[in-house]
């Protein structure tokens, strides 16, 4: 019986602990609301962290693992993700009007593992996007859009600073501009902030992405609404465009009829017959 094998790339810190356990589950993507793979890492100290599972895939690729061949040549890379991104849509849906306990917010019939997000959400983190209401030992939450936007704006600014100091071609280009044109410093900061906006928006709905864009001082970016098209939608659009180009309706162009050439012999016969009577005229009374 064959066993499916997958190739993961982990940081040493994720697997160096012997008491750590990992599990991969399907959760609802905060931006597309489709199924996406995530990884929970738990330790004996009841610490739990969440990672999104990114996949790099190329055709005609395999892996040699010890003395066997793994025909699945995909590379899976777990990277940390802020669980507030995944919780935010549920807060908007369930507790925009009233305060609701967390265990009643993280309910999704199609994704039963959604309730596990409570393990990676300290109370102080939830207060960044919601107001807390306490009644005895019960803690209820009410979504606060102002807080949520402030949290996202702060995240974009922090990410922008990281992008500006990161080594690489983009950073060198920005540093070059700063050295040559000091008066364009503000423009560089705006550019890195816009890049940060694009990264953060990948974890938000289209509507929330537009609100964040306005909160950062940018006009509503049309790219935010275009970047969410799935591969299926893109392929469908391409197919429709190709069919339209192949089967487009056109009005046929009528070319003038070519002038009929008359030979010299035909002209002579016509001239000779012009003065003669037709044979039927001899039979008329």
Automatic annotation (TrEMBL):
One Pfam match: RNase_H2-Ydr279
Compartmental location: Nucleus
Residue stretches making up the Rnh202 triple barrel domain: 19-82
GO cellular component: nucleoplasm; ribonuclease H2 complex
Domain Ribonuclease H2 subunit B wHTH span(s) in chain numbering: 85-212
CDD domains the UniProt entry points to: RNase_H2-B (cd09270)
UniProt keyword terms in alphabetical order: Nucleus
A biological-process GO annotation: RNA catabolic process
Physiological role: Non catalytic subunit of RNase H2, an endonuclease that specifically degrades the RNA of RNA:DNA hybrids. Participates in DNA replication, possibly by mediating the removal of lagging-strand Okazaki fragment RNA primers during DNA replication. Mediates the excision of single ribonucleotides from DNA:RNA duplexes.
Assembly mode: The RNase H2 complex is a heterotrimer composed of the catalytic subunit RNASEH2A and the non-catalytic subunits RNASEH2B and RNASEH2C.
PANTHER family: RIBONUCLEASE H2 SUBUNIT B (PTHR13383)
Homology family: Belongs to the RNase H2 subunit B family.
Protein name according to UniProt: Ribonuclease H2 subunit B
Organism per entry: Anopheles coluzzii
């Amino acid at each position: 019986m064959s066993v499916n094998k997958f190739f993961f790339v982990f940081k040493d810190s994720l697997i160096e602990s012997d008491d750590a356990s990992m599990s991969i589950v399907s959760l609802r993507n905060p931006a597309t609301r489709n199924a996406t793979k995530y990884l929970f890492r738990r330790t004996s100290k009841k610490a739990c962290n969440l990672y999104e599972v990114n996949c790099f895939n190329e055709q005609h690729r395999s892996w040699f693992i010890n003395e066997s061949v793994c025909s699945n040549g995909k590379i899976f890379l777990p990277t940390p993700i802020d669980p507030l991104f995944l919780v935010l849509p549920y807060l908007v849906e369930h507790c925009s009007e009233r305060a609701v306990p967390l265990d009643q917010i993280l309910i999704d019939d199609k994704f039963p593992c959604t309730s596990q997000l409570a393990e990676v959400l300290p109370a102080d983190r939830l207060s960044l996007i919601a107001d807390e209401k306490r009644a005895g030992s019960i803690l209820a939450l009410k979504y606060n859009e102002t807080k949520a936007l402030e949290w996202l704006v702060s995240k974009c600014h922090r990410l922008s600073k990281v992008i500006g100091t990161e080594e690489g071609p983009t950073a060198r280009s920005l540093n070059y501009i700063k050295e040559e044109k000091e008066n364009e410093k503000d423009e560089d900061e705006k550019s890195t902030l816009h890049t940060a906006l694009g990264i953060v928006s990948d974890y938000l709905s289209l509507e929330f992405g537009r609100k964040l864009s306005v909160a950062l001082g940018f006009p509503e970016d049309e790219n935010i609404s275009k970047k969410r098209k799935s591969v299926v939608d893109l392929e469908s659009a391409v197919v429709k465009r190709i069919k339209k180009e192949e089967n487009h309706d056109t009005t046929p162009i009528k070319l003038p009829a070519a002038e009929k050439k008359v030979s010299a012999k035909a002209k002579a016969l016509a001239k000779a017959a012009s003065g003669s009577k037709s044979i039927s005229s001899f039979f008329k009374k």
